[in-house]
Amino acid sequence: MPEPVEHPGIQRVREAAARKGVSLDIRVFDESTHTAEEAAAALGAEIGQIVKSLVFVAPNDDDSLEPILCLVSGPNRVDVARLAAVTGEKDIRRGTAREANELTGFSIGGIPPIGHTRPVRVIMDPDLGRYPIVWAAAGTPTAVFPVSPATLRTLANATVAPIAEERPPAMTVSASGPETSSQPAG
Question: What predicted TM-score, i.e. pTM, was given to this entire model?
Fold first, then answer.
């Protein structure tokens, strides 16, 4: 019986990793891993271990767009002002689904950190480093791969920088009323 043909997007991800000497254990699920919540549920992982690949764009002098890929821990949201400061791109904005596809060669929900159809600047959320293993999209909405944050950074040639929104302090309720805690929400 012939081997099943691998999706071209997954092949590009596997080949990009192989060029850097890394073999990936790509897992394909029947159910969608399109959102961080779906991926965490399918994997039995914490949502913080899920790598969200979010495409932002900055205008070039010739009116073309430069893609900037943010690799963000599952519960985090990108702070556009922080991203602008980190990248030096004052007019940076979230890319549309069409722009993301045209600039990376992948559709939203399956955008991997590597294997894009053109060079992409990558910024990585330092919160991913809290986990020994994180899970990134592998080119389709149902494919993911496990990777250490250090290997992910190397594969994606990523700059690690604080780009996530600050989370408000956790609120606790005691007999005397709500209190703000300086402890991280958990």
Answer: 0.87
pLDDT band at 35 (very low <50, low <70, confident <90, very high): confident
Q: Among candidates 143, 185, 130, 158, which has minimal Cα distance to 24?
A: 143
Q: Smallest Cα–Cα separation from 128: which of 36, 16, 25, 31?
A: 36
Which among 81, 163, 149 has a CA at the least distance from the CA of 121? 163
Distance CA 6, CA 147 (A): 20
Q: Residue 84: what pLDDT?
A: 98
Query: What value does the mean pLDDT of the chain take?
Result: 89
Report strand pairing: 143-147 vs 134-137: antiparallel
CB 165 within 8 A of CB 159: no
What sign does the dihedral 174-179-182-186 (CA atoms) show?
positive
What number of residues does the chain have?
A: 186
